Amino acid sequence: MPRFCAKCGRLYDGTLLFINNLCAKCYFEEYGILTAPREITLHICPRCLSYKVKGKWVVAERTYSIEDAVYSALREELEAKIKPLIGGLNIRTEIKLPRRIGSKFTVVLEATVTVGAHRFSQKQNVKVNIVRELCPTCFMKASKSYKAIVQIRSVKTSLSRREKALIEKVLGEIGERNIVEIEELKEGINIKTADLSTARRLALKIKYRTGAQIHETHEAVKRTREGRRTSKLIITVRLPEILEDDLVFFENELYKVSKISGTNIVLISESTGVRKNIPVEALWKGKIEKITSEHPIAKLLVVGVSDTVAYAVRVDKEYEMYEIPLSKIPRGIKVGEELKAIIINGKPYVLGKR
User: Fold this and answer.
1) Which of 83, 115, 216, 344: CA 20 to 30 A from 104?
2) CB neighbours of 31 closer than 8 A, spacing ≥ 6?
3) Using CA atoms, how far apart are residues 134 and 140, in angstroms rounded to an integer?
């Protein structure tokens, strides 16, 4: 028995999809392509332009204006609420915003679908209400409240410029999204965060770059009305005295700290250029001594060279003679050339030529 459309009488010939007892054209004219809400309310943070979808705040990516935020929020909210009337069809939707966006406006939602050689479309007006409210993170920033604090301290009395620059670089990598407040104190830096994960990520990044020690505690433990325990996380990050590019004394040898990672320290001998890997725990066991201004750089004059040693005189003080193995000085050294060295316990450690 031939099949035909109950509305227009079109005979089914296989060129146009039939849905129930209607051809696709009549079906979409009668029922539409999809169902969408007639009115929708968007919650957008006026500070960071994040928005709420399905009850959860979403951080806006590559959002430069309120229009960008509205479009992103509207698309995600509509996609969650749009329901195709027929499954298995590739339906494309487009949202057309008005030129001006206020607290209330109307957008045009256009849906298109192609069935065989036929293309169908549906347009619908959607009323949009904008509610501007602070997201939880911005609310915490405004109220100066926080969930965690990272206390960065040094084994010295205060942080050096290099240490502060390193912390600033790490903060730049993490981003300021969940940073509530940064306090610079005489004894170090306190960084308050809106969530626990940002605090822990910050502490771990600093540890990975410096070999720092981390200790976690909780304070101000309270119970909410629902009976849940709440508290503030305190993470203490203790920086070692030694950083990358420092000169250090290790196992009777002078090295430069080339790299500090989460597990290892890479040292390069100042005299031979040989690389040495040691566990990062050595920073805290007193096995490495940092070369400071207490170890002044001496000027040595090479006065003789044999097959195994070079003879050098300290010309800036005392004119003391030293015998230095050739393996501990730059290759090809000649009589009359000058070396720079650090004298530790009466023994010279050559840094290179002057």
Assistant:
1) 83
2) 85
3) 9
**Tokens at residue 99, please?**
């030129």
Provide CB contacts within 8 A for 168, sequence distance 6+.
none
Phi and psi, residue 46, nearest 5°: -70, -15
CB 163 within 8 A of CB 154: yes
pLDDT tens sequence across 87-119: 878 888 888 888 888 889 998 989 888 887 788
What's the angle, vertex CA 201, arms to CA 52 and CA 279, rounded to 5?
165
- Using DSSP's 3-state secondary structure scheme, residue 209 falls into helix
Residue 73 has which token pair? 């929020």
> H helices within the chain, ranges in order?
24-31, 66-81, 136-143, 161-174, 196-210
* Stated pTM of the model: 0.69
Name the residue with tokens 């030293």: 322
**Residue type, position 48, single letter:** C
CATH class of 32-132: mainly beta
CATH class of the structural domain 247-290: mainly beta
